[in-house]
Amino acid sequence: MNLGIKEHMRECEYSQISTSSSTPMESPHKKRTLKRRWEVFPGRNKFYCNGRIMMARQTGVFYLTLVLIVVTSGLFFAFDCPFLASTLTPAIPVIGGVLFFFVMGTLLRTSFSDPGVLPRATDDEAADLERQIDTVNGTSTGYRPPPRTKEIIINGQTVKLKYCFTCRIFRPPRASHCSLCDNCVERFDHHCPWVGNCVGKRNYRFFYMFILSLSFLTIFIFSFVLTHVVLRSHSAGFLTALKDSPASVLEVVVCFFSVWSIVGLSGFHTYLIGSNQTTNEDIKGSWSSKRGKENYNPYSHGNIFTNCCAALCGPFPPSLIDRRGFVVPDMVQPTPPTNGVTMYGATQSQSHMCDQDQCIQSTKFVLQAAATPLLQSEPVAIVDESSLPGRTLTGSPRASLPLGQPTPPTSSPNLTCESELLGHEAPETYPHLLTPEEAPSPPGMLPCGSPVGHGHNVPFYNPANQDSLHEDSIRGLVKLSSV
Asked: Where do the segments described as Disordered lie (predicted)?
């Protein structure tokens, strides 16, 4: 018996009702999908791994670099290292492995990172900048002069900041726009197709370590491949050595034609780091003495050691584009309604504020209407049977109201006795009209036998009664507004 009850209670499951507030126009089960910033990135870059990897659009040369390094190193470890480790020392493959992994790490770090792309100006920022330029130029038209520059002073040297029409910003010092990636890059050095990315402020140190370590790896492989061929030729002859290790010939050819360019590139960038220049500045001759005796590099720290430490060991700058962030659409703030209707999507505090505003506005309006002198109100037209002078209102007046409509408020209160109203009959001449006595009386009517009755003359306008009614209505409205 108990088991049956327990099983029945287990079957009775209640679904929890969600009390989270949701707008009537939107289902609570539908989740809003937001796009990542890399999906709407305006440049010509490629993104992989959900925006974690950022590269240039032309990546064919990068894959060639990758294949050359991997294939040459793989042939060296497969055909040369076993003989060299057994003949000379086992440290040769270890040193070669360390150099290979260091080269691959710095290459991928240079190729997959943000080189220092500057974010483009928004529409509001671009419009504000246009207004500033028009104010400086003294023009209010939309004419855009071709050269747009700003001059600033850095360490006593005048530096020009150029305006980028694509990004709609004044580029910072040492920044330039890459035509291949279509981005402004901070401390732009050059666009390197071998690494498949721009080289700028955020990846220059990795690029320099890559070409420097690649130079050591190329020299290392080239020298020990020759050593392998020479040692084999001593025992079996030169042709026999080439037949026993045909991969050594391919390695020697690749390393021979690569070592000169790689070592030369490493030496050139070592000179740039020592003088704290970029490739772009050196090619343009920005700080060359040919432009003038007073022209000098304002970014140099004075000695080679300090310049090298600033370029290779300085603080790592953060990325400015937030490529993995979400694109949040602009939320339209609903305006508070003025007709007393609460809009969909308004919060509880907003609706409460709207109710308070409407209450204040309504009370204010009624108070103003009540404070208006009642003399300005028009009296109700009453049809009297007799138009003789001196005839009082106690006869048989007939109101000009059709049957079934309420009686409008008059300037004097209705003080008619209820019993007399019951006993009074409407004339047959106007069966479709109601007399003021037959009209529904408001609550709180005077009892029979009061000083003011049917047989007394009631003036059409009484200032004393009017003032008391005005005072009572204001008191009631003040109490209503306080509630």
From this structure: 387-416
431 within some domain? no
Q: Which positions ≥6 away from 401 have C-beta within 8 Å?
A: 407, 408, 433, 434, 439
- pLDDT, one tens digit per residue, over 420-449 is 444 444 444 444 444 545 555 554 444 444
147 in a structural domain: yes
Q: Please tell me whether residues 87 and 195 are part of one structural domain.
A: yes
261 and 209 assigned to the same domain: yes
Give residue 198's pLDDT: 96
Catalytic position from the list 192, 198, 255, 417:
192
Residue 113 has pLDDT above 70, yes or no: yes
For residue 388, tell me if it sits in a domain.
Answer: no
445 phi, psi to nearest 5 deg: -75, 160
What does the pLDDT read at residue 286?
A: 87
Per-residue pLDDT band for 32 (boundaries 50, 70, 90) equals low
How far, in Å, CA of 435 to CA of 422, rounded? 12
Separation of alpha carbons 482 and 397, rounded Å: 42
In whole angstroms, how far apart are CA 37 and each of 51, 301, 332, 347? 8, 37, 21, 30
CA dihedral 130, 135, 137, 139 (to 10 degrees): 90
CA distance 204 to 130: 33
Which residue type sits at 350? Q
Higher pLDDT, 135 or 186: 186
SS percent in the chain: helix, strand, coil, step 5 = 45, 10, 45
Q: Domain limits at 154? A: 122-171
DSSP assignment of 184-217 equals EETT--EEETTTTEEE-TTTHHHHHHHHHHHHHH
What average pLDDT does this structure show over 98-105? 97
Distance from C-alpha of 81 to C-alpha of 70, rounded to nearest angstrom: 15
The verdict on whether 167 is a catalytic residue reads no
3-state secondary structure 266-300: HHHHHHHHHHCCCHHHHHHCCCCHHHCCCCCCCCC
pLDDT, mean of residues 455-464:
46
CA distances from 391 to 203, 243, 383, 395, 397 (A): 109, 146, 13, 8, 11
Which run of H or E residues covers position 358?
A: helix 348-371
Give a three-class secondary structure readout of 95-148: HHHHHHHHHHHHHHHHHCCCCCECCCCCHHHHHHHHHHHHHHHCCCCCCCCCCC
**pTM score, two decimals?**
0.62
